[in-house]
Design brief:
242 residues; alpha/beta; Transcription Regulator spoIIAA; 2 domains; five-stranded mixed sheet
Length: 242
Amino acid sequence: MKAAPRPFFYPKFFRLLRGYRSVDFFSDLSAGLTVGIIALPLAIGFGIASGVTPGQGLWTAIIGGLLISLLGGSRHQIGGPTGAFVPVLAAVLFLRRMEGVTQVLLLTAENDTETGANAVRGKDVPPGVVLFRFEGPLFFAAAEKLEFALRAHTGKPRIIILRMRHVPMMDATGMKALEVAWEKMNRDGVSVLVTAIQPQPMKVMFESGLADRIGMDNFCPDIDDALNRARKILGVECDGGK
């Protein structure tokens, strides 16, 4: 028995031309222009990010788009640089990860994990002084966590020490959270001290003006200097109240 002949391969493009009308052409032209406005700048960006010229990125997108249109897909399908979703998803996952990494804790001798000279255990913390420890980068997630940590302390402190030696970086949203917290504490008459801040967060605080508002005397290199500064502030306050 003679085998049935195998069907000849026709590219998808030619099969879709059957019954193709002028109105379909103008609809596709409009859709193509819209996609091109979005896709071509992305193609240039992908070219630069890949280490080639913008022109090579454009040609790659054009040739790739033609091949997709000629050999695959359907009339209702758009072929484009799906790699654009990679940085978007990466950014979402990064922010989600940072939300879990960032911690703001009310610090006591019992829950302090520091050792040696950086530990709070064994140090004389004056009454009215409360310590908070920041862990991880200060991004948008810090706002809610900082507010929650401040509410967790039911008393009214006179001085708050922010330990920031484990904060490698801070963005504008983290800066805003810190600024809002400082404004509230300043209205309540609470002095704020910052210890062991790293260069990048310090730069952000300088540029925002918060460093000047806190006062450079209130930035301390370590916890011992911060406690000494707190005793000095409390002593001045006591003398002024007599």
